[in-house]
Structure to design on (197 residues):
């Protein structure tokens, strides 16, 4: 778990850099606050989700092995107990994975709105915003060719609001190009996930 935290903390810093300064001579980001690094909220969201996912995976494996042994010998008390423990662990960690994933998605919308919009195949800023269940994107046109969606779903998941506005890829791309890319380059999506990623 400690090893997982350090890996996730390093990754979280790339998603949401904290506690650093840009060295004017080298142009490199240099860590100034180790405490900020380990308190990065993105790291803790990732850590909880990862550990719960690992426990869920272990529970599924435990249930599969127990089930295989119970098919051979129905009365084996060891595997009856281990299968019951596995089912209990799956229920608890399954709810935990879904809940932590939900809050991790909300954190992504706050910290990396372009990444959130791209993951959700959400091209235009809308309120309310629909949640895409299945989409076939047309990158050249900046829209979805096919989009099976739940109305209001993305607003509800992102902001816990039935009508909240959710930023889209096209307006974010225009904003990032105006801020970070000289007009003469003519570069277009996909290029970046914005200022923090």
């Amino acid at each position: 778990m400690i090893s997982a935290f350090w890996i996730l903390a390093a990754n979280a810093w790339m998603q949401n850099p904290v506690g650093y300064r840009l060295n004017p001579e080298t142009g490199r980001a240099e860590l100034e606050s180790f405490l900020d690094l380990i308190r990065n909220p993105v790291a803790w969201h990732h850590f909880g989700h990862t550990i719960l996912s690992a426990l869920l995976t272990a529970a599924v494996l435990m249930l599969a092995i127990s089930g295989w042994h119970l098919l051979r010998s129905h009365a084996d008390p060891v595997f009856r107990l281990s299968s019951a423990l596995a089912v209990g662990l799956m229920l608890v960690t399954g709810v935990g994975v879904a809940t932590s994933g939900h809050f991790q998605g909300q954190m992504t919308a706050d910290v990396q709105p372009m990444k959130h919009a791209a993951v959700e195949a959400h091209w235009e800023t809308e309120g309310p915003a629909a949640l895409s269940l299945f989409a076939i994107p047309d990158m050249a046109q900046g829209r979805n060719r096919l989009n099976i969606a739940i109305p209001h779903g993305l607003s509800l998941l992102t902001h816990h609001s039935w009508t909240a506005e959710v930023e889209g890829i096209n307006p974010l791309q225009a904003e990032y190009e105006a801020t970070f890319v000289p007009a003469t380059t003519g570069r277009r999506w996909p290029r970046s996930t914005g200022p923090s990623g």
About this structure: Helices lie at 2-15, 34-39, 41-72, 77-111, 113-119, 153-159, 169-180. The first helix runs from residue 2 to 15. The mean pLDDT is 88.
